[in-house]
Design a protein that fits this description.
404 residues; eight-stranded mixed β-sheet; globular
Length: 404
């Protein structure tokens, strides 16, 4: 399922470090003022990888949390966190919207224009045939859908002023963010159609050791993995957004945060000791969905389960041994000269309570709910320093806004 270790090293090992966020941090563009030090995840460089010990850590080996942290994560999980968004910065909305809607089949569900702050947000979502809602982006109904969805959207952030900055797609030395992914029934046929529409590729499905999966480029150069669905899938749409991949330093810290605190379910776990890395796949399961009965390390069962999901999983990639290096850190996508990927986001029932629980568990906040121009939403830092937006489920007031 994962790209072959040899090929992955060749096409880009990365690490994610954190940044000192300046006095005016453009996480979307200008939504809050803050001075923060952030620390995110990654995949170690080839030279670093050779120095790392081979440390395979299963999810069951996650370090025991202190009683106070465990209690805080339990409180956080009771607020029904759900994985709601992945944010990427873009240069040309026309080109990006065309790619993700006309080529990848997503639906443009909502738009926010902040002309006074010089940026716009475009939200896109994958729906199966017959399930696409009739929404006018920017309308109250669109806002209501966006902040109450049980699915996950792709947020494209466009800064109006062209500063000449070229957004960084990740997958270079020190980067943490890796890619997003889409599932489809037939990777070869779908990639042929993509190529006919002018899409270029980092890796085509018949290239490299791992046949049957591909990496395409979006208009900004972000890697878009094309992955086969499992035979358990009942999805009719050609593509569905299926994954966001981030590199992590220490699964013993990252897994409890996302699993125990943010309420995600570990649905697949793959270890490659010969190549010194592991992958952990976590999902927010829709309400009423029974938890999987398979062992996440059961390759066939877990692969079949993940390949049939409609909503995206969060793929956390760990390069063995990074957890033992006190100086190791990843770039999180918000550093000057490395900006591209911005954050992931979760909906919760109560933002204030969620932030209190995160801090009680030993976590940090980059933006408090009462801070900045957009009050009522927050940004936490995960154990690697990735930005995690915390938004109230349903929004605020009759306009269903994410801020007060």
């Amino acid at each position: 399922r994962r790209v072959s270790p040899t090929y992955m090293r060749a096409i880009g090992s990365a690490t994610a470090s954190c940044t000192a966020v300046g006095s005016y941090f453009k996480i979307r563009s200008c939504c809050f003022q803050s001075s923060v030090v952030v620390r995110p995840p990654s995949r170690a460089s080839h030279s670093h990888r050779r120095r790392l010990s081979t440390t395979v850590m299963s999810a069951s080996q996650s370090q025991s949390l202190s009683s106070s942290s465990a209690e805080a994560y339990a409180r956080l999980s009771q607020l029904r966190p759900s994985f709601q968004q992945t944010m990427l910065r873009i240069k040309n909305p026309t080109a990006s919207l065309k790619f993700y809607t006309e080529v990848m089949g997503m639906t443009h569900v909502d738009t926010y224009d902040f002309n006074d702050m010089g940026f716009s947000l475009y939200f896109l979502q994958s729906f199966d045939e017959g399930a696409k809602p009739a929404l006018e982006p920017g309308s109250v109904d669109a806002h209501k859908h966006l902040w109450s969805t049980q699915g996950t959207v792709l947020e494209l952030t466009h800064n109006h002023e062209d500063s000449g900055e070229v957004y960084h797609a990740g997958n270079e030395e020190g980067d943490g963010f890796g890619h997003i992914a889409f599932n489809c029934d037939d990777v070869y046929a779908s990639c042929k159609r993509l190529e006919e529409q002018g899409v270029t590729f980092k890796k085509k499905p018949d290239e490299g050791r791992m046949k049957g999966l591909a990496f395409a480029y979006d208009p900004d150069g972000y890697w878009v993995e094309i992955v086969p669905r499992s035979d358990k899938s009942e999805i009719k749409q050609e593509f569905n957004l299926s994954q966001t991949m981030m590199r992590i330093k220490d699964p013993a810290r990252s897994l409890p945060f996302y699993r125990d605190g943010m309420g995600m379910t570990l649905v697949r776990e793959s270890h490659y000791p010969e190549a010194n890395f592991s992958n952990y796949f976590l999902a927010t399961l829709p309400p009423g969905t029974p938890p999987p009965t398979h062992d996440p390390q059961d390759r066939d069962a877990s692969k079949g389960y993940v390949g049939a999901l409609h909503g995206p999983v969060l793929e956390l990639t760990h390069n063995h041994g990074t957890e033992n290096d006190p100086d190791f850190k990843h770039k999180n996508g918000n550093e000057q000269g490395k900006r591209g990927f911005g954050h992931i986001g979760f909906l919760v029932d109560d933002v204030d309570e969620a932030c209190a629980a995160i801090e009680a568990a030993g976590g940090e906040l980059a933006k408090r709910p009462e801070g900045g121009k957009m009050q009522g939403l927050a940004f936490a830092l995960d154990p690697d320093g990735y930005m995690v937006e915390i938004v109230k489920r349903g929004g605020y007031g009759d306009a269903f806004q994410p801020y007060k």
